[in-house]
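Hello,

I think I submitted the zinc ion job twice by accident. Can you confirm which output corresponds to this input? Input:
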Amino acid sequence: MIRAYRIPGCLLLLAVVALVLGVYLFRSVAGGLEDRGVTALSWSVAGRIIAVDPGHGGIDPGSKGSSAVEKEITLAVAQRLKEVLTSSGAIVVLTRETDKDLSDPDGGRLITRKRQDLSRRLELAEKQNADIYLSVHVNSFKSGPREHGAQTFYQPESEEGKKLAESIQAEMVRVLGNTKRKAKPVDYYTTRNSKMPSAIVEVGFISNPKEERMMCEPEYQDKLAYAIYCGLVKYFAAATAATGKSPVDRDGALETFIENEGRVFDAP
Ligand SMILES: [Zn+2]
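Support: Only one job matched these inputs. Its output is below.
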């Protein structure tokens, strides 16, 4: 015989609320611990020379949304990334700091100027002896306005590029909490010609109206930069562990970092 018990509605509601609260608390504690882990590892980027390339600029706007333009978002995120990396003692080389490209103004057709722009950005990073080259872009898929989520790409045959891209993508998934995309190989001019390990981060889809709005918000730009930063910290920590070599101290960057010891970067 089966006896049916009726659970009072209010008790059931209370149980559901407790469960939701429990899950929420667990996730925030786990997230907090992860962020502390990143802070503890932030020494790994000290002394590293990191080329950050804000995609497009000048004559080349990149992809366009309903009101935003790719070149503006990439510059905003790259500048924020520079800030957080510099605070950890990294030396950041931005390929552009304003709305410009590196091609000659009388360099001919747009495609020729585009190629010149890209190769000069790489040259700039090489001259500065950058350890890695990270290009920031915004994705677009006009025929699918619901496509969304940040995604990182690497050159197919590059083992180091793969590690870099996977590290960044894992942190994008963790910090942003709105993408489950995976790092993927793609044959692209910059990653193909880069002598350093390199990756391309597409921080979101400008063709998705909601994501376009978010990518224009300073708070979300901070979050994107923080996610990339976490990926870089973990990539360099793993690289140091693998080679047994400490990051090279360049221009006293390590001292600067040690002086700033104890400073905690709050996750946005
Ligand atoms: Zn782009």
